[in-house]
């Protein structure tokens, strides 16, 4: 049995429906544990005080904002190459989640930056990159809504997603070139211990896991919605024909 | 040079409209497509010309020999008659031959801007494009719309003598009798069944 | 390909439209800027490179929706698609034609408008070079956007939304090179990167544009 069998819309719904509540609960529990742990059971940072705790929302949201775009890129490629409807609809479903994650990252970044840098917004490379990512999400979603025919929309948004990804990476480097910025380096990396002490790091990992689970739950739910909408339209056209 | 269509199914807007269409054309053959509005004549012609993918079946004719023409014929209002034709000739790697202007009675109009032509004259210009591109297999969608009887005859003569007579092939959707001795293919029996397979929505039903 | 280029240029010249309008828009934006920020010469000098670049970019955006729309309306597009010319070549020619009718005049007009914004004398050369290198990329990216939106009524606004984010790297390297060059720093890096983007865009976007056109022709 090939993995592609799950790309059939009916099969996909049948397989994921029983899993969905579990993922939702797992996301809820992980998020509550991670956030409560992060907010109440970690010491304040010696320089940044309790402000640093917004980190538990900011970093996972920022990571997801990028990862969701990457996931959209992968599903777009799968649609273009293998023509599996679920893949295209999953990309469509992920768009709004991605843009909300980008907004959360931008908003929490502003709230975090205000006391630390003394301003809500700076044209720092990292912040600017997220603003640009926001614009890319906006264009992607706008193209989906503008085109009536579902398969045409899927094809064109996929092409846009691929080209957009290249330009998003280019923009990232261009923005770095343009302004060397205030933002600290990436908070989590393989040498994370240098940046963030373990006490902060463990709850952060739990929060990241929570955001990933939340995304998986939402994307499955929204893909179900898109599949059912498409099915409703298909039945309607068949009835009218 | 021949056109071979076997078991072709075509879709419009993601829904199958025709299925199981088969026919063959030898050099010099024309085929007239008939059928009520909405049966899928335009869709079939566009699929044959390679503008849209068919759902299943085969279409076989030599590469780079097909041409499609509909009522929208790519005539630029700001260019003169000869400029319009020269453009299409050059795109197809040829040159504009004056006999084409004679065949379509455009000699007196040759330097007029296409935008100043009447609807019928514009159609003649659009059809004259077929004479300059040197394509052997023509897919024509209602080529005679807004032509008067005299022009229809002129076009039919060109088609018979200069195209089919030279070993060309033409598949034509038309409601007017062009006066060609050509078989008629009624598409009504090929109408896709309500539950025909292959539509883009199929996976969702 | 030459035939298509010749035709598009002839059409652009005869239809008037795009040719003059883009330039007029460029001029008006530049005239409006001092009204908005005040007439102080030092301030204008400082922002001139960026303003000139942004204004040129917006002016180039104006005529994008006409790249394929007219050919779509009169049915030229399916006829071109069945011609021996590959759609990739059509896309490339459309981009080049747009640049010749829009990007090139904007580039040539930019130094004249630089006077209005009190641009430093040392910046003129860089302005001309960066626009010369950068505007072709703007045209080709715009052609891609136009192909995505060709079948849509009221696609113009959506086209801007799709294309403007893609313009960011070109804008950054272009304006940055002028700024650095004018201040006596080395502009080579920015120029090379901008040139790289332009070359890359012309190498790959015709394929994406043709793919989008094929989808829209279905």
Automatic annotation (TrEMBL), chain A:
Q: Name one GO cellular component term.
A: plasma membrane
Q: Which domain of life is it from?
A: Bacteria
Where found in the cell?
Cell inner membrane; Membrane
Q: Does the keyword Transit peptide apply?
A: no
Q: Which GO terms describe its biological process?
A: cytochrome complex assembly
Ranges annotated as spanning the membrane: 20-41, 61-81, 93-115, 127-147, 159-179, 199-221
**Does the record carry Cell inner membrane as a key word?**
yes
A molecular function GO annotation: heme binding
Q: How does it sit in the membrane?
A: Multi-pass membrane protein
Question: Which Pfam families does the record cross-reference, listed alphabetically?
Answer: Cytochrom_C_asm (PF01578)
Which keywords does this chain's UniProt record carry?
Cell inner membrane, Cell membrane, Cytochrome c-type biogenesis, Membrane, Transmembrane, Transmembrane helix, Transport
* Domain Cytochrome c assembly protein span(s) in chain numbering: 11-183
InterPro entries the record matches: Cyt_c_assembly (IPR002541), Cyt_c_biogenesis_CcmC (IPR003557), Cyt_c_biogenesis_CcsA/CcmC (IPR045062)
Looking up PANTHER family in the UniProt record yields: CYTOCHROME B_B6 PROTEIN-RELATED, HEME EXPORTER PROTEIN C
Similarity comment text for this entry: Belongs to the CcmC/CycZ/HelC family.
The record describes the protein's role as:
Required for the export of heme to the periplasm for the biogenesis of c-type cytochromes.
What is the name of this protein? Answer: Heme exporter protein C
Lineage of source species? Bacteria, Pseudomonadati, Pseudomonadota, Alphaproteobacteria, Rhodobacterales
Automatic annotation (TrEMBL), chain B:
A GO molecular function term, named singly, is: ATP binding
**Pfam families hit by this protein:** ABC_tran
Q: GO:BP terms for this protein?
A: cytochrome complex assembly
What InterPro entries would the database entry show? Answer: AAA+_ATPase (IPR003593), ABC_transporter-like_ATP-bd (IPR003439), ABC_transptr_haem_export_CcmA (IPR005895), P-loop_NTPase (IPR027417)
Residue ranges of domain ABC transporter in the record: 3-205
Q: Provide this UniProt record's keywords sorted from A to Z.
A: ATP-binding, Cytochrome c-type biogenesis, Membrane, Nucleotide-binding, Translocase, Transport
Q: Which SMART domains match?
A: AAA (SM00382)
Q: Which domain of life is it from?
A: Bacteria
List the NCBIfam families hit by this protein, alphabetically: ccmA
PANTHER family reported in the protein's UniProt record = ABC TRANSPORTER I FAMILY MEMBER 1
- The molecule here is called Heme ABC exporter ATP-binding protein CcmA
- Organism listed in the record: Salibaculum griseiflavum
TrEMBL record, chain C:
What does the entry give for GO biological process? cytochrome c biosynthetic process; cytochrome complex assembly
Role: Required for the export of heme to the periplasm for the biogenesis of c-type cytochromes.
Q: Which residues cross the membrane?
A: 12-37, 43-64, 96-117, 123-150, 157-178, 190-213
Report the family membership.
Answer: Belongs to the CcmB/CycW/HelB family.
A Pfam family annotated for this chain is: CcmB
Which compartments does it reside in?
Cell inner membrane
In its keyword annotation, does this UniProt entry include Transmembrane helix? yes
One GO term in the molecular function aspect is: heme transmembrane transporter activity
Return the PANTHER family for the record: CYTOCHROME C BIOGENESIS B-RELATED, HEME EXPORTER PROTEIN B
**Protein name as it appears in the record:** Heme exporter protein B
Which Gene Ontology CC terms are recorded? plasma membrane
Transport as a keyword of this entry, yes or no, is yes
What topology does the record note for this protein and the membrane?
Multi-pass membrane protein
Q: What is the lineage of its organism?
A: Bacteria, Pseudomonadati, Pseudomonadota, Alphaproteobacteria, Rhodobacterales
Any idea which UniProt keywords this protein has? Cell inner membrane, Cell membrane, Cytochrome c-type biogenesis, Membrane, Transmembrane, Transmembrane helix, Transport
Q: Which domain of life is it from?
A: Bacteria
Q: Which InterPro entries match?
A: Cyt_c_biogenesis_CcmB (IPR003544), Cyt_c_CcmB_bac (IPR026031)
């Amino acid at each position: 049995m090939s993995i592609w069998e799950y790309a059939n819309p009916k099969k996909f719904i049948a397989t994921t429906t029983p899993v969905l509540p579990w993922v939702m609960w797992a996301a809820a529990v992980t998020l509550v544990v991670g956030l409560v742990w992060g907010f109440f059971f970690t010491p304040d940072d010696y320089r940044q005080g309790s402000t640093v705790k917004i980190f538990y929302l900011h970093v996972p949201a920022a990571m997801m904002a990028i990862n969701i775009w990457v996931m959209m890129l992968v599903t777009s490629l799968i649609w273009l190459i293998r023509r599996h409807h679920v893949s295209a609809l999953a990309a469509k479903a992920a768009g709004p989640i991605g843009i909300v994650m980008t907004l959360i990252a931008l908003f929490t970044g502003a709230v975090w930056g205000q006391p630390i840098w003394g301003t809500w917004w700076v044209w720092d490379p990292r912040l600017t990159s997220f603003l640009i990512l926001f614009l890319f999400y906006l264009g992607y979603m706008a193209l989906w809504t503008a085109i009536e025919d579902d398969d045409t929309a899927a094809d064109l948004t996929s092409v846009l997603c691929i080209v957009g990804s290249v330009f998003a990476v280019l923009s990232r480097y261009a923005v770095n070139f343009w302004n060397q910025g205030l933002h600290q380096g990436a908070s989590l990396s393989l040498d994370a211990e240098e940046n963030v002490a373990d006490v902060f790091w463990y709850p952060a990992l739990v929060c990241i896991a929570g955001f990933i689970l939340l995304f998986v739950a939402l994307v499955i739910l929204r893909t179900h919605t898109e599949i059912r909408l498409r099915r409703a339209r298909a039945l309607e056209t068949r009835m009218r024909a | 040079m021949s056109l071979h269509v076997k078991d072709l199914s075509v879709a419009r807007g993601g829904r199958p409209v025709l299925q199981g269409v088969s026919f063959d054309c030898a050099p010099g053959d024309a085929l007239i497509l008939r059928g009520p509005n909405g049966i899928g004549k335009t869709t079939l012609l566009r699929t044959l010309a390679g503008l849209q993918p068919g759902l299943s079946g085969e279409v076989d004719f030599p590469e780079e020999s097909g041409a499609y023409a509909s009522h929208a014929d790519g005539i630029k209002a700001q260019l003169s008659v000869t400029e319009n034709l020269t453009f299409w000739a050059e795109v197809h790697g040829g040159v504009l031959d004056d006999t084409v202007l004679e065949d379509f009675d455009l000699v007196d109009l040759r330097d007029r801007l296409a935008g100043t032509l009447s609807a019928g004259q514009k159609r003649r210009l659009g059809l004259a494009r077929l004479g300059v591109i040197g394509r052997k297999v023509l897919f024509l969608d209602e080529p005679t719309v807004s032509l008067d009887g005299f022009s229809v005859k002129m076009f039919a003569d060109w088609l018979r003598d200069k195209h089919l007579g030279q070993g060309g092939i033409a598949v034509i959707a038309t409601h007017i009798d062009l006066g060609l001795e050509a078989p008629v293919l009624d598409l009504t029996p090929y109408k896709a069944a309500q539950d025909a397979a292959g539509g883009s929505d199929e996976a969702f039903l | 390909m030459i035939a298509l280029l010749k035709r598009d240029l002839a059409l652009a010249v005869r239809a008037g439209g795009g040719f003059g309008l883009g330039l007029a828009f460029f001029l008006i934006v530049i005239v409006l800027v001092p009204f908005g920020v005040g007439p102080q010469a030092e301030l204008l000098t400082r922002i001139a490179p960026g303003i000139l670049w942004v204004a040129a970019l917006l002016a180039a955006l104006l005529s994008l929706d006409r790249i394929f729309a007219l050919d779509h309306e009169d049915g030229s597009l399916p006829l071109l698609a069945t011609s021996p010319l590959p759609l990739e070549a059509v896309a490339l020619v459309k981009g080049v034609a747009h640049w010749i009718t829009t990007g090139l005049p904007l580039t040539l007009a930019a130094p004249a408008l630089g006077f209005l914004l009190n641009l430093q004398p040392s910046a003129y050369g860089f302005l001309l070079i960066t626009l010369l290198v950068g505007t072709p990329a703007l045209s080709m990216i715009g052609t891609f956007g136009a192909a995505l939106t060709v079948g849509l009524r009221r696609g113009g606004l959506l086209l801007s939304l799709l294309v403007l984010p893609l313009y960011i790297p070109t804008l950054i390297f272009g304006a940055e090179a002028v700024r650095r060059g004018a201040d006596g720093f080395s502009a080579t890096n920015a120029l090379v990167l901008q040139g790289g983007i332009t070359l890359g865009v012309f190498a790959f976007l015709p394929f994406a544009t043709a793919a989008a056109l094929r989808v829209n022709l279905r």
